[in-house]
């Protein structure tokens, strides 16, 4: 399932600054097609920025990000790469989907409409086809009976499952999860992780997660990256990284969070 | 000729220049009416605000009803009412005074809400803290509540002054010679409305711009360190 | 004349006032959305026109605007050879709509800007275009925020219609003035006039509440 030759995501010396703060410091990073990769690291270290750059919610200040071999924030001009136009970003964005920490559901739309709106308006699907796909996805996330409710009528865990269904409805080849369980009450975390875990097992989606759920990261990931101070300090299989980290920083971090 | 100034119809520019003193005389009346009306609105609004927050419903409900009534009926009609009805009861005021009174009454409905919102925005724990410090009710009001309410109240009041200014032309119907009225008179006599009315529009833009900047400056100058404003 | 004799002519005038209020509120709403959205446009021409419209009509007096449209515009038209003489009803609806639209535009702009950035990010992640985001995500969520202010503006607009009596349009106030000139019964006629406006304002307020409940039903459904 995993293509080992061409990375679907490639960060090449990517720099991102917020004012004086350098969040990504010449980051090099690759994800292979179908791979499930988790990024862990201290809070505020810029892990989420990696996802937000991929989702084109944040621009970059240096380097090149490529998705599927094509530059994301640049396009090919007559004299080499130039900053991407909105049209290019829209084309590239179609390959990605994102699940947000705060769910970000559309409060004025029913659950089903949250899922069908973009397929109808952006992909041009017929309403009937979008509805069929929406109901399938609701079944996948175990919310078939909630289709006509509004987001505020659902629990946080249910809302996040709708968020996952909504992202999947666009048929992305890469799905980004930005701390999908951080905003949830502890008793609701499990249902969301179960859904994500099932996706990881059953689909050939490329998945990139930022999470604080270490046990979960260990279960579903093909590879875990420890991110700190704008770079990936250490990466490896969950087995390697969690049981035998080579870097001192990684050990400190894992000790702190696993206790 | 108006106010002793003759107009010069030889060219549009000469016409515009020649009527400027007339319009500025009218503008001075506009400003006076607005300021007097604003003063009435500040005082009457405070009275309504106090009555509306009275502990007895026999006072607060009628006060609320009256301010609602004032707020929901047109200034023009209130002005007519004062201008034609008051004399029937022996109260004869100059048109200018009647006009300023009408402006003040209309806007008292709005200013009373500003006072109320400003006072209510002072958190309850401030009152409790004052009580814990054993301050008298009067001292609590003057030293704790008012200094915190003022920065909330002043900008809103300033905006109402600007609104009142824009409502002064309504007073032209009872013969007050404010800016629009004199422009209209010039137009009536010269059959040329375009220049006088356009100039009034331009002068209004300047007046409201100046007044709004004044409000903003006043707001910036007010001490409000540490006072949480929404 | 007995006061009941005033009712019929006043109702005739009231009907004109209702129509004026309705038409100018519709015009004002359209202008409010156009200029409120326009002010946020990245296109500087659209933005400039919107800002100029809002500033001019908020910065000058409604009565000045009304007189300008009724008395000055025809002369401006004559100067360039176009007949711009407006019937009073058109001048009235236009002045009222343009004026209330400028105030409404600031309400629309504020409500649109108040929609949380999370929603824009979600829309972007789902690849909505800027236009789709505005019309499908932002505006539907902004409308409930606008409703309380729109309710106030609608009542303001109703009250403002009284000014059109000054360009001899036969509205409620105009009729009352006619009767007063004839009977000199100022107290009765103006009291009736005030209460009629008050009643109409209550109806407008109630209608706006119903509308508010309708556009916010997604917030309240299911408790």
SSE topology sketch:
The complex is a heterotrimer of chains A (259), B (230) and C (223).
Chain A: E1 7-18, E2 21-32, E3 36-40, H1 47-54, E4 62-67, E5 70-71, E6 74-77, E7 80-83, H2 86-93, E8 96-99, H3 111-121, H4 127-140, H5 156-168, E9 174-178, H6 186-202, E10 206-210, H7 214-220, E11 223-228, E12 231-236, H8 238-243, H9 248-258
Parallel strand pairs in A: 3-10, 3-11, 8-9, 9-10
Antiparallel strand pairs in A: 1-2, 1-4, 4-5, 6-7, 11-12
Chain B: H1 12-52, H2 57-71, H3 75-85, H4 95-120, H5 124-132, H6 137-167, H7 179-190, H8 194-221
Chain C: H1 7-38, H2 44-59, H3 62-79, H4 88-114, H5 117-125, H6 130-160, H7 172-183, H8 186-215, H9 217-220
Offer a concise description of the structure.
Chain A is an alpha/beta fold. In chain A, 37% of the residues lie in helices and 27% in strands.
The DSSP helix count of chain B reads: 8
Largest interface, C-beta within 8 A: B-C, 36 and 40 residues
The CATH topology assignment of chain C is: MetI-like fold
The CATH topology assignment of chain B is: MetI-like fold
Oligomer: heterotrimer
Structural class of the secondary elements of chain C? mainly alpha
What is the architecture of chain B at the second tier of CATH? Orthogonal Bundle
CATH architecture of chain C: Orthogonal Bundle
In words, what does this structure look like?
Chain A is of the alpha/beta class and 259 residues long. Helices cover 37% and strands 27% of the residues of chain A. Chain A starts with 6 loop residues before the first strand and ends with a helix. By secondary structure, chain B is mostly helical. Chain B has a single domain (12-221), classed as MetI-like fold (Orthogonal Bundle), CATH 1.10.3720. The termini of chain B are far apart. The mean pLDDT of chain C is 93. Chain C has a single domain, classed as Orthogonal Bundle (MetI-like fold), CATH 1.10.3720.10. Chain C has helices spanning 7-38, 44-59, 62-79, 88-114, 117-125, 130-160, 172-183, 186-215, 217-220. Chain C has nine helices and no strands. With 223 residues, chain C is an all-alpha fold. Chains in contact: A-C, B-C. The A-C interface holds A 55-57, 86, 90, 93-94, 96-98, 100, 102, 104-109, 117-118, 121-122, 149-150, 152-153, 166-167, 170 and C 118-119, 121-122, 124-130, 132, 136-137, 140-141, 218-219, 221-222.
């Amino acid at each position: 399932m995993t293509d080992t030759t061409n990375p679907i995501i490639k960060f090449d010396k990517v720099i991102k600054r917020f004012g004086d703060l350098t969040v990504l410091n010449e980051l090099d990073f690759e994800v292979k097609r179908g791979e499930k990769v988790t990024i862990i690291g201290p809070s505020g270290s810029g892990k989420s920025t990696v996802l937000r750059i991929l989702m084109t919610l944040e621009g970059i200040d240096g380097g090149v990000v490529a998705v599927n071999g094509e530059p994301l924030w640049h396009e090919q001009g007559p004299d080499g790469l130039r900053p991407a136009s909105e049209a290019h970003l829209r084309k590239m964005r179609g390959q990605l989907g994102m699940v947000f920490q705060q769910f970000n559901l559309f409060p004025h739309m029913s659950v089903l409409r949250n899922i069908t709106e973009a397929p109808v308006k952006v992909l041009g699907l017929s309403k009937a086809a979008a509805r069929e796909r929406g109901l399938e996805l609701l079944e996948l996330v175990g919310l078939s009976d909630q289709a006509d409710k509004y987001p505020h009528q659902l629990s946080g865990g249910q809302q996040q499952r709708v968020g996952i269904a909504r992202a999947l409805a666009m048929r992305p080849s890469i799905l980004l999860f930005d701390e999908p369980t951080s905003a949830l009450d502890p008793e609701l975390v499990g249902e969301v992780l179960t859904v994500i875990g099932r996706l990881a097992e059953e689909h050939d989606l490329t998945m990139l997660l930022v999470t604080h759920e270490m046990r979960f990261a260990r279960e579903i990931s093909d590879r875990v990256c420890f991110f700190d101070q704008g770079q990936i300090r250490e990466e490896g299989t969950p087995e390697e990284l969690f049981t035998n980290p080579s870097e001192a920083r990684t050990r400190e971090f894992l000790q702190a969070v696993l206790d | 000729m108006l106010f002793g100034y003759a107009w010069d119809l030889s060219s549009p520019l000469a016409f515009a220049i020649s009527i400027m003193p007339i319009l500025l005389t009218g503008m001075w009346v506009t400003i006076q009416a607005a300021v007097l009306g604003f003063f009435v609105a500040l005082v009457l609004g405070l009275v309504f605000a106090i009555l509306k927050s009275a502990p007895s419903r026999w006072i607060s409900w009628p006060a609320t009803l009256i301010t609602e009534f004032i707020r929901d009926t047109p200034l023009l009609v209130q002005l007519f009412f004062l201008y034609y009805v008051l004399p029937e009861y022996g109260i004869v005021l100059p048109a200018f005074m009647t006009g300023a009174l009408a402006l003040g009454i209309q806007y008292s409905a709005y200013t009373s809400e500003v006072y109320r919102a400003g006072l209510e925005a002072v958190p309850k724990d401030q009152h409790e803290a004052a009580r814990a410090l054993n301050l008298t009710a009067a001292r609590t009001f003057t030293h704790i509540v008012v200094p915190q309410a003022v920065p909330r109240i002043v900008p809103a009041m300033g905006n109402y002054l600007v609104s009142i200014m824009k409502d002064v032309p309504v007073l032209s119907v009872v013969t007050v010679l404010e800016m629009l009225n004199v422009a209209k008179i010039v137009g009536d006599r010269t059959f040329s409305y375009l220049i006088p009315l356009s100039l009034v529009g331009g002068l209004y833009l300047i007046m409201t711009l100046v007044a709004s900047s004044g409000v903003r400056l006043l707001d910036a100058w007010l001490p409000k360190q540490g006072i949480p404003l929404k | 004349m007995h006061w009941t004799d005033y009712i019929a002519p006043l109702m005739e005038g009231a009907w004109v006032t209702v129509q004026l209020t309705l038409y100018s509120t519709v015009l004002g709403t359209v202008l409010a959305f156009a200029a409120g959205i326009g002010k946020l446009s990245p296109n500087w021409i659209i933005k400039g026109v919107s800002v100029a419209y809002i500033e001019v009509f908020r910065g000058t007096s409604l009565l000045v605007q009304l007189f300008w449209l009724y008395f000055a515009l025809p002369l401006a038209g004559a100067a360039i050879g176009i007949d711009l003489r407006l019937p009073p009803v058109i001048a009235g609806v236009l002045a009222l709509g343009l004026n209330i639209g400028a105030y409404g535009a600031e309400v629309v702009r504020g409500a649109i800007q108040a929609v949380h950035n999370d929603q824009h990010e979600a829309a972007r992640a789902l690849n909505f275009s800027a236009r789709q985001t505005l019309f499908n995500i932002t505006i539907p969520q902004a409308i409930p925020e606008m409703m309380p202010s729109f309710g106030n503006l609608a009542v303001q607009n109703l009250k403002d219609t009284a000014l059109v009596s000054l360009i001899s349009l036969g509205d409620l106030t105009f009729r009352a003035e006619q009767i007063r000139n004839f009977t000199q019964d100022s107290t009765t006629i103006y009291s009736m006039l005030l209460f009629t406006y008050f009643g109409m304002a209550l109806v407008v307020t109630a209608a706006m509440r119903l509308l508010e409940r309708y556009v916010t039903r997604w917030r309240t459904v299911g408790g």
